[in-house]
Structure formats: C-alpha cells, structure tokens
Amino acid sequence: MSHAPSAPAPRTVGAAMADAIAYPLQRDALISIAVLSIAQIVCGVVPVIWALLQLVVWASAYRYALEILAASGQGRAAPPQGWLLAGDGLQRSHLWLQAVCIIGIVVGARFLGTGGTVVLVAAVALALPGALLALAAAQNLLAAFNPGAWWAVARIIGPIYLLLAAATAATLLLQLLGGALFARFPLEGIGQLIYFSCVHYALFALFRLLGLTLYRHAEELGLEQVSVARPVLVRDREVAAVDRDVRAAAEIADPRARAAALAVVLRRGGADPSLHGAYRQCLRQLGDRAGLRQHAEVRCCELVALGKPADALALAIEALGDYAGFALPEAEATDALLAIADARGALRQAAALAVNYRITYPKRRDGLPLAQRGAVLLADRLADRSAAEQLLEAALAQAAGTPDAAEFDRLLRRLRAGLPLGQSIGG
After folding, report:
1. Terminal alpha carbon distance of the chain
2. Could you tell me the pTM of the whole model?
3. Fewest Cβ atoms nearer than 10 Å: which of 203, 261, 372, 390?
C-alpha cells in the first residue's frame, strides 16, 4: 500500500487536468503501463487461448486504474503500489460495471453501424463518470446503475462532469479505434506497443482525474476518507506507554506492588538505568534474594550486549555480595566480565564468576575456557592452588577424549609441580 502523503486538491480545472496528464508518468504508473502493454502483445501471439489471456490483462489494467481512483480519492499524490480499495467485493463491483459498458459498446457496434456506435459511446461516456463516482462513494453496485445517482453526482461536481464525460469518450474511442490506427505502423510490434501504452496512459489519466474530483467533493458525495497522516511509530507508542507506567509506579508506596509495576515496565523495554536500580531497591526491601539474583543474571547479560561491561561488572559484584554462588547464564558474557575484572584488579570476583559458572553449568563445554582462565587467576594471582586444582580436575574429566584434554593435563602437571600456569587458552 502506498503511504504517499496527502496532496491538496487542485484548485482549478486546468490544474486538475495538468495533474492527471502528468500522473501516469510517475515511476510506479509507468512500470504498470510497460508491464501491461508487453503482456498484451505476448498474449496476442499465444494460440487458442489468446482472447482469454487478453481479457485477464485488460482486467488487470482496469483494476490498477480503479486503485488509482481509490488512492486519488483519499488524497494520495503518488500512484498506488498495492491494493487500496475497501475489499474484493468493491473491486468486483467496479470491474462488473466496466465490463458491462465495454461489452455493451462492442455488441452495439456490430448492429448499430457507425452513427449508432458513436451515439452509444457518447451515452456511455455521459453515464460512466457518474456511475463510477457513485459506486466509489456509496460502495453499492445498485447506485452505479441508478440514473438518479448519476444526476446527483453531476449536480454536485458541476461543469467538470462534462470534462470527465469527454475524457471518458476519448479513452473509449482510443480503445475501440486505436488498434486499427496503429496497425498501419511500419513495425507491427512497435505499433502495438505504442497503441497499448497510449490506451493505458489515457485510462490511468482518466481515473486520476476522476479520483481528484472524488477527493475534492468527498464530503458532498458522502465518501468516507481515511486519514493519511504519518502513522505514529509503534516504538513511539511503546515509549509513551512506558513513561506513563513509570510515573504510575513512582506513586506506589507498597514495595511489593511497586516492584510488580516496575517489572512490567522493564519487560516492556524500559531502558533507563534508574528503573533497574529502583526495582532492585524494592526487591531488597522485600528481602527477595531470588528475585535479586534473577534480575542480576539477566541485566548483566544485557549490559554486556549493550557494550557496557563495566556496568555489568559493578552489578555482578553487587550480586556476588548478595549470593556467593552468583553466575551468569552465558559463557560469553562471563568471559567479558572476566576480562574487565582482570583489568580493574577485581581478581577474586573474576575467579568467583568463572568457578560459579562451572559449578552451575557443569556439563556445558563452553565453560572449559572459563575453567582455564579461572585456574590461572586462582593459582598464579590469588595463590589458591587447591581451588585451581579442583577446577582443572573437573575440566579434565569433562574434556576427556578431546583435544582440550592435553592442555588441562599440562596445566595440572605444572600446578602439582609448583610452577606458574601462565596465560590460559582463550585468555
């Protein structure tokens, strides 16, 4: 669906005509003209079913023209890129109306002769603008075949109705007689391409002019117009809702109720760091240690993903103070915290995070590099060789039969020989 902004209706008949003439030259309309014209040429050389295929292409052309009418009636300035009509039922009603008119003219031309055909085309051209606009406004097929509705439309829109009738007559005549005219072109294929392109151009320009008229007189005709103002972004609505919820939570005195309200805000995307601090304060007032631990696990991983490992480390140190067995649920985030903790001299907390991860998730193979880093910290920098040995033994048992086993075996032999372990793999 096109979301082109609403354009003011041309103030004069001349301006409306100029707009309609230029409209089919826009990119989306030109693409449609080219595709439909080439399709009709190709369909014409298909044996046996060529007439059926031509009918399908003509229906597609009229359907796009009807989309132009609907889009223009809603004030859109650019050709449609999708379907804008109210639904398939209204589309079928428009197509039935067009089919009745075209079939009536073709059948009449076989029996009425030249003079009678001209009169028939003039009569259809006089009725069709009123029928189309009545159907578009009332969305009722009966209105399209009601001469009283045609007269009502003509009375509302005024003298421009005669211009619409003349443009309709010209388009119908081009469809009926243009083929014979362009058949005299020296190159048959080029002549057909020019003919079909001119027909589709005229059709789209006509329906643009009809749509502009519909837009200008929408209120008098009873057309329900849809607002085409820029839609509010979903994210904007979410931010506004979060702001309202934050203000409401701040007014809640009960820590439990305030914590529940802040939890909802955080789940909905509240990104202000102070919200997390306020939530943790409520949990601390309630003595909810499990809640504090769960929040810290999730929030630390979020901060690492946001590129804020220092903030994540500060929260992890706080969580370790609340619960000595605190561990992050992700090895990658834990490794990032080990790096920043090592750089800042928080060696004991870094080792605790590595050891806790191995204890909490003993079967995860992504924890093997953490075991190596933790063992180096414990043995070489914290002088806790016993804890380092336990960490390496558990890792060696898990790595048995893998290439990592040799490295853990080497580290264990160095540890038992009283040698420093040195830089760990992945460190």
Report:
1. 53
2. 0.48
3. 390
Tokens coding 359 = 């204890």
H helix count then E strand count, the chain: 19, 0
Q: Tokens 């005195």 appear where?
A: 253
Q: The tokens 């979410």 sit on which residue? A: 238
CA distances from 235 to 164, 228, 269, 270, 322 (A): 45, 19, 10, 12, 36
- What are phi and psi for residue 76, nearest 5 degrees? -80, 140
* Phi-psi region at 252: left, alpha or beta (left = phi > 0; alpha = psi -120 to 50): beta
Alpha-carbon torsion (291, 294, 295, 300), positive or negative: positive
Cα–Cα distance measured from residue 206 to residue 215, given in angstroms and rounded to the nearest whole number: 14
Distance CA 70, CA 53 (A): 26
More confident call, 324 vs 190: 324
What is the fold, at CATH topology level, of the domain defined by 327-427? 1.25.40
Q: What is the pLDDT of residues 337-350, one digit of tens each?
A: 888 888 888 889 98
**Residue 68 pLDDT:** 84
Q: How many residues does the chain have?
A: 427
Q: What value, to the nearest 5°, has the Cα angle with vertex 169 and ends 165 and 171? A: 115
CA dihedral for 105, 111, 114, 115, sign (positive or negative): negative
CA distances from 389 to 365, 410, 424 (A): 18, 12, 14
Instruction: Delimit the domains of the chain by residue range.
Output: 13-221, 232-285, 327-427
Where does residue 269 fall: left (phi above 0), alpha (psi -120 to 50 degrees), or beta otherwise?
left
CA dist 35 and 28 (Å) reads: 11
Give the Cβ contact number of residue 230 at 10 Å. Answer: 8
Count other Cβ atoms within 10 Å, centred on residue 43: 18
Whether 3 has a pLDDT exceeding 70, the answer reads no
According to DSSP, residue 76 is labeled B
In angstroms, the CA 100 to CA 159 distance is 26
Residue 412 makes CB contacts below 8 A (sequence gap 6+) with 389, 392, 393, 396
Mean pLDDT of 243-272: 77
Q: Categorise residue 422: left if φ over 0, alpha if ψ from -120 to 50, beta otherwise.
A: left
The reported pLDDT for the residue numbered 189 is 64
Nearest to 128 by CA among 89, 91, 99, 158: 99
pLDDT tens-place string over residues 204-233: 888 888 888 888 877 676 655 554 443 444
Nearest CA to 364 among 330, 409, 324?
330
Which of left, alpha, beta for 4 (phi over 0: left; psi -120 to 50: alpha)?
Answer: beta
Distance, CA of 292 to CA of 283 (rounded, Å): 6
